[in-house]
Design brief:
alpha+beta, Amidase signature (AS) enzymes, 11-stranded mixed β-sheet, 35% helix
Length: 497
């Protein structure tokens, strides 16, 4: 099924600039797709169609006048419901904010609007982004477009599903323990975790912590780069962003279009688990099978991993402390409105003392040093994007993997948070299907500050793998979703458990 909403963002923007497609035509196609399939997946939970139509009409007038058009001119975009949007319901997936309509945009939303993007609506997320299963007590569950019985992961699950089903060509997301990369892997799209500070955010409660970042999601690497260029900036509102006074460090042109890179010159490490992640045997086997199809294109491809001993401890402490800082007051004021994942993080954080926190920060620093040593002899690392394949959306989190209990409700995200802890950039790109017929995501991890390297390698691999049905990006059955029963009728749709 091919309609304007199925175009890549890059192609749609080219056609708009050439006056061969109007912004209004593209928007109406996206709205039509939302209205025809969202009942089956519940991805676009708040909608701003009338304002979007007015914005598209103004964009069309600018095109016809021959104005200089910004990079995202006329492109519809979905905004994750953790990001504050002026005049549009922003709930953070929490009953505490069920009726919250902000009076201004946060920085990243304002940036994409300035670049010409048209905000269509908000995409679903778990409560305050806690947990990698996109369900909450406000809007309910978002499900996988390849199988309605399965999870789309999270916390940017609504964005991933909206992209996979062609509701919009671009979406925003955010990532602490893999929230850009995990849903991308489960839904067959692209999610990029940039280096901390590359996309400035003024809303991190601990501004000097690089664990949480905001980043782009799309269906292709080039589209991801296009959106990243609009999101990037030197902004003093984020203490991690402005690094050289009076100089421009981060420029949109650094990432779009992605420059070519010679894969034959790269030294690549492959690991199914970073030596500690609880990877499902099925996923490790699929990873080996997929990489066997293309590892020969690199100068060197070897099984190797940085020493990640201590990653679990460091991430668990630092994550829990961040939840205390962000949400303790909310839990004390309205404990009955706080869900189990957020509650568990806060309660854990309160158990730690200064010695625990100091040890976690020291471990993080040691891990960072080990990774720098490892990258002296490797250019990128390839891993599965996530430790398991999609499981039931009713499962709040995987309590076991291959029969072994998980350490925490987020232990299954270890493949992603290994990278988070040390602050390196990483991307998940789709590489065909696993043996259960569900999307398989490949994680590409680059060196410190190597965002452009990651994106260039991803673009080359995407092009290389697109022609093989075993590795090409999978597409859900849109026609089947159109006639599928509404997911909101399912038992357990609303709530946390």
């Amino acid at each position: 099924m091919s309609e304007p909403c199925d175009l890549t963002a890059v192609e749609a923007r080219r056609l708009i600039g050439a006056k061969q497609l109007s912004s209004s035509e593209l928007l109406e196609s996206c709205i039509g797709r939302i209205e025809s399939v969202d009942h089956a997946v519940n991805a676009m939970v708040s909608r701003d169609f009338e304002r979007a139509r007015a914005t598209a009409k103004a964009a069309d007038a600018a095109t016809m006048r021959g104005d200089v058009l910004p990079a995202l001119h006329g492109l519809p975009i979905g905004i994750k419901d953790l990001e504050v949007t002026e005049g549009l319901l922003t709930t953070f997936g929490s009953p505490l904010f069920r009726d919250n309509i902000p009076i201004s945009d946060e920085r990243v939303v304002a940036a994409v609007r300035r670049a010409g993007a048209i905000v269509v609506g908000k995409t679903n997320t778990p409560e305050f982004g806690a947990g990698a299963n996109t369900r909450n007590a406000v809007f309910g569950a978002t499900v996988n477009p390849f199988d309605q019985s399965k999870s789309c992961a999270g916390s940017s699950g609504g964005s991933a599903v909206a992209l996979a089903t062609g509701m919009v060509p671009l979406c925003t997301g955010s990532d602490t323990g893999g929230s850009l990369r995990n849903p991308a892997a489960f839904c067959g799209i692209v999610g990029f975790r940039p280096s901390p500070g590359l996309v400035p955010s003024e809303r991190r409660p601990h501004g000097w912590s690089g664990l949480p970042v905001v980043g782009p999601m799309a269906r292709t690497v080039a589209d991801t780069c296009l959106l990243l260029g609009a999101m990037t900036g030197d902004d003093a509102s984020d203490p991690l962003a402005t690094t050289v006074h009076g100089a421009t460090v981060r420029r949109p042109g650094d990432f779009y279009p992605p420059a070519r890179i010679d894969l034959a010159g790269l030294r690549v490490a492959l690991t199914p688990d970073f030596g500690f992640a609880p990877t499902e045997k099925h996923i490790a086997s699929v990873f080996a099978e997929k990489t066997s199809l293309f590892r020969h294109v690199f100068a060197r491809a070897e099984e190797a991993t940085p020493d990640c001993a201590g990653t679990d401890e460091a991430f668990e402490v630092l994550r829990a402390v961040s939840f205390v800082g962000a949400h303790l007051d909310k839990m004390r004021a309205s404990p009955e409105l706080i869900g189990p994942n957020v509650r568990a993080n806060i309660e854990e954080g309160l158990r730690y003392n200064a010695e625990d926190i100091a040890r976690a920060l020291s471990l993080q620093t040691v891990l960072y040093g080990r990774w720098q040593s490892f990258f002296q002899n490797h250019d990128v690392i390839l891993t599965p994007a996530i430790t398991i394949g999609p499981r039931s959306w009713r499962e709040l989190y995987p309590a076991e993997i291959d029969g072994a209990p998980t350490r925490t409700y987020f232990h299954w995200l270890a493949m992603a948070y290994a990278v988070t802890v040390v602050g390196h950039p990483a991307i998940s790109i789709p590489v065909g299907l696993d043996r259960n017929g569900m999307p398989f995501g490949l994680q590409i991890v680059g060196p410190r500050g190597g965002d452009a390297v990651v994106l260039r390698v991803a673009a080359e691999l995407e092009a290389l793998l697109a022609g093989d049905s075993r590795t090409a990006r999978p597409v859900p059955n849109i026609a089947a979703l159109m006639t599928a029963p509404p997911i909101r009728a399912a038992e357990g749709f609303i709530g946390f458990d």
